[in-house]
Design goal:
Layout: E1 12-13, E2 25-29, E3 40-44, H1 51-58, H2 60-67, E4 70-75, H3 99-114, E5 122-127, H4 129-140, E6 147-151, H5 162-169, H6 177-185, E7 196-202, H7 211-224, E8 232-236, E9 239-245, E10 251-258, E11 265-267, E12 282-284, H8 289-296
Parallel strand pairs: 3-4, 3-5, 5-6, 6-7, 7-10, 11-12
Antiparallel strand pairs: 1-2, 2-4, 8-9, 9-10
Helix pairs in contact: 6-7
Pfam family, one: Esterase_PHB
GO molecular function, one term: hydrolase activity
InterPro entries: AB_hydrolase_fold, Esterase_phb, Plant_Biomass_Hydrol_Est
Length: about 300
């Protein structure tokens, strides 16, 4: 069920945006302190969630108030998917130029133009089906995004049917590493630069097997030319981070595994820098993925 809200709706509906072939809803949050030339983060909710509920749980709009970040929240209709999930596995909703990806692209165009967003600072993140759709957007429109953060998601186009999607979620079979890379290369005409990739996953996720996180990393390693083991492994309180960098030391891919966490978005609501609130699939583990992701993207400087 959607996360309940203890405060009035913060998001503003985006009524008209392109042809909307995926028949999605859209919401925005533009903080009072937003200035032209600022960044945009696209935030995709998970199954059984709403845009408003996911914002309240993750704390993105609260962070936007702190640092002047524009937010776009695409939202699924129950009429499109009975669980309110983005249709990341359907052929008609996983390619460039049609379906739900094109609807999200149209939303981004509208917000970037209306609010004078810096086109080189557009980012995207999502949980579960929203994480899988984040993979879709990064593969099909890589030129649009500076970076993406995939939370408890799946690699791009590893399933074409609902049954196949359920198998992939449980970690059964799937494309080879070479096929994973080819799927991204064939998704657009882009030959670089490519968005940075951040992969987040609970080490005890019982809904989307953790092997999917490793598959996402492998899908993008050859794209970013950082094949092989990570350049560094960081052990933090509650999570481990593996990092792949280029010759200049810039992080191109990282993978964050949360110790003991099940399926959901890691949040840290306590303390002065706390964000969000605990709820369904919004898991209080003392780690604010929202703040850490925004820090990595340079949005909090």
């Amino acid at each position: 069920m959607p996360i309940s809200s203890n405060h009035p709706d913060r998001l503003t509906p985006l009524v008209a945006f392109g042809t909307n072939p995926g028949a999605l809803l859209a919401n925005t949050y533009i903080p009072k302190g937003f200035r032209p030339g600022g960044p945009l983060v696209v935030v995709l909710h998970g199954s059984t969630q709403s845009a408003e509920g996911y914002d309240g749980g993750s704390g993105w709009s609260a962070l936007a108030d702190e640092y002047g970040i524009a937010l776009l929240f695409p939202e699924q209709r129950i009429s499109n998917n009975f669980k309110g999930a983005f249709n990341w596995f359907r052929r008609g909703d996983s390619g460039r130029g049609y379906g739900e990806p094109l609807s999200i692209r149209h939303m981004i165009d509208d917000v970037v133009t209306e609010h004078a967003i810096d086109p080189f600072r557009v980012f995207i993140t999502g949980l579960s089906s929203g994480g899988a759709m984040t993979s879709v957007m990064l593969a099909t429109y890589p030129e649009v995004f500076a970076g993406g953060a995939i939370i408890a998601g799946l690699p791009y186009r590893t399933a074409n049917t609902l049954m196949q999607a359920l198998y992939r979620m449980k970690g059964y079979s799937g494309p080879s590493d070479r096929q994973l890379t080819a799927l991204v290369r064939d998704a657009s005409d882009n030959r670089g630069p490519w968005p940075t990739i951040s992969v987040w996953h609970g080490a005890r996720d019982r809904t989307v097997d953790m092997c999917n996180a490793d598959s996402i990393v492998r899908q993008w390693q050859q794209i970013h030319q950082v094949e092989g083991p990570p350049d560094s492994i960081e052990h933090h309180d509650g999570y481990t981070r593996q990092v792949w960098t280029n010759a200049q030391g810039r992080v191109l891919i990282d993978e964050i595994l949360i110790k003991g966490m099940d399926h959901g978005t890691p949040i840290g609501a306590g303390g002065k820098k706390g964000l969000g609130r605990e709820g369904a699939y919004m898991l209080e583990v003392g780690i604010s993925s929202t703040r850490i992701i925004a820090d990595a993207w340079g949005l909090t400087k």
